[in-house]
Amino acid sequence: MRSRTHPNLPVVLSVSEVKQILNEMNGLPKLIAQVIYGTGLRKNEVHRLRVKDIDFDRNQITVKRGKGRKDRPLPLPEACKNDLLKQLEFVKQLHLKDLREKVNGVELPYALDRKDPSAGKSLSWQWIFPSLRISTDPRTLIVRRHHMHPSVFAKHVKKAVEKTKINKKVTAHVFRHSFATHLLESGADIRTVQELLGHSDVRTTQIYTHVLNRNPNGTLSPLDKL
């Protein structure tokens, strides 16, 4: 009989550790970290956010065609709303510059690229976190503006963690793990957390119950009652 394999427990930061790391970050990398921790977005989802995906009036971020090719709405954290508005203004100015310089439009989903290739030059489809450099798409050889490369964010996180001397391997996904765990610790329903994370199976979400400050039943250790 085969032995069951158990998934590795996710690395999770405490609230204090999240604060320490964010305090050592600034600019765009800090904003990206805040958005991931504040919404539970996956690394590829946050980098592929477009202007149209953020509704500031309704305080909502929509993940379009996330994992499993499903859309899902997420609450926009009030704490980073003003910085996101400033980022949007920056994106607008960068977009106007690209239009003046006749830069090719941003990458579009394949179906839309065929139906309306001009959409790539509209503001609504621009990346929220664009790269500062124009580059060549290695697949199509089209010269255009891409979103910030994930490695840039990873380098800033690594530097911030080194400064805090936190002895954990912290990646973009650790902010997502921490989002889920802290929600459950604050009493959020596991089904709600499942929907926010975009998990198709609640069993995937249940792994976070193994890293809570309390056990899955919410019972404190008897030692903690002494």
Description:
There is one protein chain. This protein has about 230 residues and is mainly alpha-helical. About 40% of the residues lie in helices and about 10% in strands. The protein is built from nine helices and five strands; from the N terminus they run αααβββααββαααα. The protein has helices spanning about 15-25, 25-40, 45, 80-100, 110-115, 150-165, 170-185, 190-195, 200-205; strands at about 55, 60-65, 70-75, 130-135, 145. The strands form two sheets. Strands 1-2-3 form a three-stranded antiparallel sheet, with no helix packed on it. Strand 4 and strand 5 (about 145) form a beta hairpin. Helix 2 (about 25-40) crosses helix 6 (about 150-165) and helix 2 (about 25-40) crosses helix 7 (about 170-185). It starts with 14 loop residues before the first helix and ends in a 21-residue tail after the last helix. The model is unreliable at about 1-5 (pLDDT under 50).
